[in-house]
Design brief:
Blueprint lengths: L2 E5 L2 H4 L8 E4 L6 E4 L4 E5 L6 H36 L8 E4 L2 H4 L11 E7 L5 E5 L4 E6 L5 E6 L9 E6 L13 E4 L4 E8 L4 H9 L2 E4 L9 E3 L14 H11 L6 H9 L15 H23 L15 E2 L9 E2 L2 E2 L1 H10 L5 H4 L7 E6 L14 E5 L5 E11 L14 E3 L13 E6 L10 E3 L6 E10 L1 H4 L9 E2 L2
Helix pairs in contact: 2-5, 2-6, 2-7, 2-8, 7-8
């Protein structure tokens, strides 16, 4: 009997195989050099597949679908990683306060300049009231897909005047006789609610914080609990790896209605052990497929997020500063497609979105730009020394900041110095005679610039964010230009 074999080529493998690569996995200090072989497809001369190839083809089909599901699942797992750690310190509806570098260390691309006031709720249990005080507050409500359900505070419907919201789950009805000013209908049961109290200090900050309220409908609002987040966190907010990624995903999906995006995820994962209403107990073959798929999915996410081949758009055509947020729509629903690549690359390196981050507001909201390579096109590497220049008249109504992040965890860099950012509101930073600010990243501070220096880790890569709070016209018309990050000789 004549057999006609062909081997899946690398190009075709991205479509059919998706896992035909050799990996050297050094995440979390572990190195795993492995190579998966190409699937050899054989046909008999009567046109039917040779029986010996069928099992391998079925396995490859599951891998392809799981890799596709991985991209859609990134924002969900990002939320769940934080959520499960939140529950080790607090309960749903408690406010957890992150107000210093140590407590913010595990949060994806956190800033260290404003306090975070965070809680999670499960709307499958109850609708919730949220009370936000008047004042300089930027807040958000996001679903498991990290789509903003509503802003709170200045850019929310209360417009900084304060207000009472009622938050209702996807399968629940808005309660009759509620006394909320604003109704928010969530698209998921699990929801993250967060605010930033901007610019207030001392008693004013304490008063604003104390006025934050969240409670189940029909429950007394006077029992609000505030908890200081631990300064010795044992977790990091980057998505989990291996089988744990899929365990985190499954835990969330089991508590959610089957709708649009998660319906697609569940469809792609049929046959892997993840199924709504079923205990996740994959057999060894399913485990192997899921673990391999997470490796490839993580590599693809890194390409889309960090690499020179990233789809991300530059703010200035001749500069290496890229838009961190590339979604065009708040619900991520482009008229012609779902913005899955844009959402996945953003939520791979960051967490939560809001109108203030997406809409082009002059003088309010915020804009983020990221830099991953230097002026010569090479990765930012902790063994080198770099200079970042913020020119005078930075277009920020409130303030600007430069923050350095670890490229593996995507969290603020952890160094002996205990410092990860420089901002215009910091005291004692050196400003040049021309109004510009020189910032240095490297193992040692240049003489005279100790306050403008962030210590790097010599064996780790990093990336930088420029944040503009209250972006001004010169940002939007691009007349203010940020130089590339320069490697010092």
């Amino acid at each position: 009997m004549k057999l006609n074999p062909f081997i899946i080529t690398p190009l075709f493998a991205l479509v059919l195989n998706g896992c035909n690569i050799q990996t050297a996995d050094k995440r979390n200090g572990a190195e795993d050099n492995s190579e998966t072989t190409s699937v050899q497809v054989k046909f008999e001369d009567n046109g039917y597949l040779d029986q010996s190839t069928i099992s391998d083809i079925k396995d490859e089909h599951l891998k392809v679908k799981a890799i596709s599901a991985f991209e859609y699942a990134l924002p969900i797992v990002g939320i769940e990683v934080w959520h499960k750690e939140f529950l080790k310190e607090a309960n749903h509806g408690d406010w957890l306060i992150y107000d210093n570098q140590k407590s913010k260390a595990p949060i994806l691309t956190a800033n260290t300049t404003t306090p975070y006031v965070i809680t999670f709720v499960d709307l499958a249990e109850s609708s919730y009231y949220i009370e936000i005080p008047a004042g300089p507050i930027g807040g958000l409500i996001v679903d498991i897909y990290q789509s903003p359900m509503s802003d709170l505070g200045i850019l929310g419907p209360d417009e900084g005047k304060g207000g009472k919201y009622i938050l209702v789950g996807p399968k629940a009805e808005v309660p009759n006789g509620h006394d909320a000013d604003f109704v928010v209908k969530s698209t998921s049961n699990l929801v993250l609610i967060g605010t930033r109290i901007i610019g207030l200090k001392g008693e004013k900050y304490k008063s604003s914080l104390a006025a934050h309220r969240i409670y189940k409908a029909g429950v007394n609002s006077d029992d609000q609990i505030f908890i200081q987040a631990t300064e010795t966190p044992q977790w990091r907010g980057n998505q989990s790896h291996g089988l744990e990624f899929w365990q985190d995903l499954n835990r969330v999906l089991q508590n959610e209605p089957v709708v649009d995006r998660n319906r697609f995820i569940l469809t792609q994962l049929r046959g892997t052990g993840i199924e709504r209403g079923m205990t996740f107990e994959p057999n060894q073959k399913q485990k192997d497929i899921l673990i391999e798929s997470e490796k490839m999915g993580n590599a693809m996410a890194m390409v889309n997020t960090f690499s020179r081949e990233s789809y991300k758009e530059k703010h200035w055509p001749n500069r290496n500063w890229l838009y961190v947020i590339n979604m065009e729509y708040l619900d991520h629903m482009h008229p012609n497609y779902y913005e899955v690549t844009e959402v996945a690359s953003y939520t791979y390196e960051a967490i939560t979105t809001s109108k203030g981050m997406v809409l082009n507001n002059i003088g309010s909201g915020s804009k983020y730009l990221g830099a991953y390579i230097d002026d010569e096109g090479n990765w930012l590497d902790g063994k080198n020394n770099y200079e970042i220049i913020v020119p005078k008249d930075a277009p920020a109504n409130q303030f600007w900041s430069i923050t350095i992040y670890d490229n593996d965890t995507r969290c603020i860099i952890e160094n002996e110095q205990g410092k990860s950012d420089i901002s215009s509101v910091m005291e004692n930073i050196k400003v040049e005679a021309d109004g510009s600010t020189r910032i240095f990243v490297g193992e040692k501070a240049p003489e005279g610039y100790e306050n403008n220096w962030i210590q790097s880790n010599p064996n780790k890569g990093f990336f930088a964010y420029l944040r503009l709070y209250g972006p001004l016209e010169s940002y939007y018309d691009k007349s203010w230009i940020m130089p590339n990050i320069k490697k010092m000789k």
